């Protein structure tokens, strides 16, 4: 069964510290992985996707198929990074593309 | 307005009421979705529409009834809800739903409270 697991409900770090938000997935095929972010009082929005291999707002995420992980990393956290982060997997179930979300991790960056 | 809009933003209803949530997307997308976001569970996909046809219904109780009159509008009709249905209901759209690479654009959500 397809599943996305984010083991940490809350991650609290100080400004300038490195950040790693963990995400593990279960999927039998070749998944597409995404990170979505929800800032306070804003709508859920795409942060980055693994296929683009891009860095957005200093965040990067590498797909590790051996460990079935897609952890989100940033070397130096900023206060404005405080938000709810969701890892999501896009896969085919029959002919239907589905986006499956993890439980979400709240990132709290303290001054 | 651009993007995905949802009305109302907040709704309080009794268990015997009938109400509807509305979603509109201004992106020219072909697929639309309803999600439920509650405090204790991850985002739950409820319904998927592609070109106005329902293609996914994830075992949602019949007290939730979706309607997609055209590719820009999506409704969620509510009747005889339970207090545990209180949640944030999110609408999303994407260019297409077939294939695995697509980004979903989310609306701001409707905060529903069932009393």
Strands, helices and their partners?
The complex is a heterodimer of chains A (111) and B (115).
Chain A: E1 3-5, E2 10-14, E3 19-21, E4 24-26, E5 32-38, E6 45-49, E7 60-61, E8 72-74, E9 83-93, E10 96-101, E11 105-110
Parallel strand pairs in A: 2-11
Antiparallel strand pairs in A: 1-4, 3-8, 5-6, 5-9, 7-8, 9-10, 9-11
Chain B: E1 4-7, E2 10-13, E3 18-25, E4 31-37, E5 44-50, E6 53-57, E7 64-70, E8 73-79, E9 87-94, E10 105-106, E11 110-114
Parallel strand pairs in B: 2-11
Antiparallel strand pairs in B: 1-3, 3-8, 4-5, 4-9, 5-6, 7-8, 9-10, 9-11
Report what the structure shows.
The complex is a heterodimer of chains A (111) and B (115). Chain A has 111 residues and is an all-beta fold. In chain A, 0% of the residues lie in helices and 49% in strands. Chain A is globular and about 45 Å long. The mean pLDDT of chain A is 90. With 115 residues, chain B is mainly beta. Chain B is built from no helices and 11 strands. The radius of gyration of chain B is 13 Å and the shape is globular. The mean pLDDT of chain B is 89. In chain B, 0% of the residues lie in helices and 56% in strands. The chains are: A mainly beta (111), B mainly beta (115). Chains A and B meet through strand 6, strand 9 and strand 10 of A and strand 10 of B.
